[in-house]
């Protein structure tokens, strides 16, 4: 799915701003059929939950409604006219005036709705968007809705971050020529100093295709004709971690010499692969340093914010991080564009978090019922998961920063039924994108003795909390457990091993001379213990700390103001561990600590 951009043949109008807002229980039937009768207004993009002081809105179960008037440019006569939603969490219905024109299920991937026949160039229309925050056992991520003793509905979800909802990313109106470029797929490789860009173009309307590749100065380096082919770059400059070099691929849909449509996208020439126990970028061993993150800020919730994005990348650069994981859902595409331009590697993760009834059972790992069953994660859940993977890969396949697909966070891979659930999904990902390795982040209940699916994947990615949820305050024992855990995975798999989550909740300003949990010293000491263990294993290829910054969670007695495992506070102030990480990570340049420069 191509990101809408303005070109010589396409126009783009952002619809971000302040929209009318209301929840369904305070509106008449069919509220889209007239102007919303509400005093409330909501910012777009932003989650709606923290915008208002009314708790009934923050924890609402059911539909909410956004509405605004949209003016269609009069110059768009004869064009296709589409609405683009970068995300609507978690499902949406879209109305133009009184007409339902489309919808979408899945809260973190974009969707387009063709409204050509429902609007008129030069005229305005009433746009109403119904958005539902509801999660059930057939959504990704899953959850359940119950009716409480008071008669009200409550949402339960099985992931440890707040269920922010709404129009958290941009909304746009854009035009396309009747004959246009519909999709572009790019795969890159190189041989010595010669780079290659293999492309495939899909068009609507049967046009011929012409492509050209230019450098940053605009000099055309290669051209080709046809819907698929190969472009060659002599003296190629590779896209590298920390040194992003981008070319521009321009695709034209043509009729003879007439250009009917034109679209341009950035291309970074690089390769990624797993070979034995190594993760290779451009044929060289690479060591990940970085974070699991969240799209999470005060007031905005999961609303995308360019200022926070820039600052977060600056803080990652300050620590020496070279990568991050989009835990636990795809981030706004603007974030990947930024990573492309700045040479930051991305582990791109789906919203499949909470596929584990063992977590509901607590640290015992005993599920109330099997995870992989029609009662919870059955055939419909698997189908929703597959659709999410199609949309994720369709959106992100051309980003050079994306080097690894993570198709689930902490699933019950130790339970019966896991293989039947995941094997078709792994096969789907390899079919959609045979160029990138695949992983999943592994819950502590899934061990090298009982995990049932690791042979399907390329990288062993562990989430481990020795010294926190297990052996809290006893780092000596935790170190022994961690050492044995990693050794067990090495002996079993012969695959690269990395840690996608490790850390400790930390209250800034809390100090102690002892190994006291929640203190800044304990967080620093725990991370140092993990790093000592990592450095003992040449098979270890990366460390991503949980978490970059403190973030909001659901109500829970074990959380004080959210999850506090951040190296930075939610306001992005550094804790003591941030300075220790900076000392460890800066200057590694993707090398294993202790490896020769």
TrEMBL record:
<dbReference type="InterPro" id="IPR036156">
    <property type="entry name" value="Beta-gal/glucu_dom_sf"/>
</dbReference>
<keyword id="KW-0326">Glycosidase</keyword>
<dbReference type="Pfam" id="PF02836">
    <property type="entry name" value="Glyco_hydro_2_C"/>
</dbReference>
<dbReference type="Pfam" id="PF00703">
    <property type="entry name" value="Glyco_hydro_2"/>
</dbReference>
<dbReference type="GO" id="GO:0004566">
    <property type="term" value="F:beta-glucuronidase activity"/>
</dbReference>
<dbReference type="InterPro" id="IPR006102">
    <property type="entry name" value="Ig-like_GH2"/>
</dbReference>
<dbReference type="Pfam" id="PF02837">
    <property type="entry name" value="Glyco_hydro_2_N"/>
</dbReference>
<feature type="domain" description="Glycoside hydrolase family 2 catalytic">
    <location>
        <begin position="272"/>
        <end position="587"/>
    </location>
</feature>
<keyword id="KW-0378">Hydrolase</keyword>
<dbReference type="InterPro" id="IPR013783">
    <property type="entry name" value="Ig-like_fold"/>
</dbReference>
<comment type="similarity">
    <text>Belongs to the glycosyl hydrolase 2 family.</text>
</comment>
<protein>
    <recommendedName>
        <fullName>Beta-glucuronidase</fullName>
        <ecNumber>3.2.1.31</ecNumber>
    </recommendedName>
</protein>
<feature type="domain" description="Glycosyl hydrolases family 2 sugar binding">
    <location>
        <begin position="14"/>
        <end position="177"/>
    </location>
</feature>
<dbReference type="InterPro" id="IPR006104">
    <property type="entry name" value="Glyco_hydro_2_N"/>
</dbReference>
<dbReference type="InterPro" id="IPR017853">
    <property type="entry name" value="GH"/>
</dbReference>
<dbReference type="InterPro" id="IPR008979">
    <property type="entry name" value="Galactose-bd-like_sf"/>
</dbReference>
<dbReference type="InterPro" id="IPR006103">
    <property type="entry name" value="Glyco_hydro_2_cat"/>
</dbReference>
<dbReference type="InterPro" id="IPR023230">
    <property type="entry name" value="Glyco_hydro_2_CS"/>
</dbReference>
<dbReference type="InterPro" id="IPR006101">
    <property type="entry name" value="Glyco_hydro_2"/>
</dbReference>
<feature type="domain" description="Glycoside hydrolase family 2 immunoglobulin-like beta-sandwich">
    <location>
        <begin position="179"/>
        <end position="270"/>
    </location>
</feature>
């Amino acid at each position: 799915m191509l990101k809408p951009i303005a070109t010589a043949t396409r126009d783009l109008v952002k619809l971000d701003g302040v929209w009318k807002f209301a929840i369904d229980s305070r509106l008449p039937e069919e509220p889209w059929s007239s102007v919303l009768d509400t005093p409330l207004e909501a910012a777009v993009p932003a989650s709606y939950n923290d915008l208002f002081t009314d708790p009934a809105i923050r924890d609402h179960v059911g539909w909410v409604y956004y509405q605004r008037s949209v003016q269609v440019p009069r110059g768009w006569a004869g064009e296709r006219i589409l609405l683009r939603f970068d995300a609507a969490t978690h499902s949406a219905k879209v109305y133009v005036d009184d007409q339902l024109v489309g919808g979408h299920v899945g809260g973190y991937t974009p969707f387009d709705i063709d409204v050509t026949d429902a609007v008129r160039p030069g005229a305005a229309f009433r746009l109403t968007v119904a958005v539902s925050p509801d999660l059930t056992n057939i959504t990704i991520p899953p959850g359940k809705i119950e009716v409480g003793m008071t008669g009200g509905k409550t949402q339960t979800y099985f992931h440890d971050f707040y269920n922010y909802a709404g129009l958290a990313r941009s909304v746009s109106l854009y035009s396309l020529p009747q004959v246009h470029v519909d999709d572009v797929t790019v795969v890159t490789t190189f041989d010595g100093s010669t780079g290659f860009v293999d492309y495939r173009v899909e068009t609507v309307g049967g046009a011929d295709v012409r492509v050209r590749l230019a450098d940053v100065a605009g000099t055309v380096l290669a051209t080709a004709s046809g819907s698929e082919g190969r472009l060659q770059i002599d003296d190629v400059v590779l896209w590298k971690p920390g040194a992003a070099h981008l070319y521009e691929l321009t695709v034209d849909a043509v009729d003879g010499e007439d250009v009917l449509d034109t679209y341009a996208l950035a291309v970074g020439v690089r390769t990624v692969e797993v070979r034995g126990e190594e993760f290779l970028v451009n044929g060289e061993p690479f060591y990940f340093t970085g974070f699991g993150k969240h799209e999470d800020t005060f007031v905005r919730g999961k609303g995308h914010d360019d200022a926070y994005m820039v600052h977060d990348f600056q803080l990652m650069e300050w620590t020496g991080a070279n990568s991050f994981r989009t835990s636990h859902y795809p981030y706004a595409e603007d974030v990947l564009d930024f990573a492309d331009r700045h040479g930051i590697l991305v582990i791109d993760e789906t919203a499949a978090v909470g596929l584990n009834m063992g977590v509901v059972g607590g640290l015992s790992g005993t599920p109330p019922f099997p995870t992989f069953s029609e009662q919870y994660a059955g055939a419909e859940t698997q189908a929703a998961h597959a659709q999410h993977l199609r949309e994720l890969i369709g959106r992100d396949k051309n980003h050079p920063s994306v080097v690894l697909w993570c198709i689930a966070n902490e699933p019950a891979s130790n339970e019966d039924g896991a293989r039947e659930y995941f094997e078709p999904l792994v096969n789907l990902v390899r079919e959609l994108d045979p160029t990138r390795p695949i992983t999943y982040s592994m819950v502590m209940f899934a061990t090298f003795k009982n995990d049932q699916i690791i042979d399907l994947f390329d990288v062993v990615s562990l989430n481990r909390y020795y010294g926190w949820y297990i052996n809290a305050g006893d780092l000596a024992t935790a170190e022994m457990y961690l050492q044995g855990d990693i050794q067990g995975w090495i002996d079993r798999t012969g695959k690269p091993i990395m840690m996608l989550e490790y850390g400790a909740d930390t209250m800034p300003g809390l100090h102690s001379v002892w190994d006291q949990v929640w203190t800044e010293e304990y967080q620093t000491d725990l991370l140092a213990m993990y790093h000592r263990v990592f450095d003992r294993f040449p098979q270890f290829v990366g460390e991503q700390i949980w978490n970059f910054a403190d973030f909001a969670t659901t109500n829970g007695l074990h959380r004080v103001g959210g999850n506090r495992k951040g190296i930075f506070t939610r306001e992005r102030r550094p804790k003591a561990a941030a300075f220790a990480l900076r000392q460890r990570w800066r200057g590694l340049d993707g090398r294993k600590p202790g490896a020769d420069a």
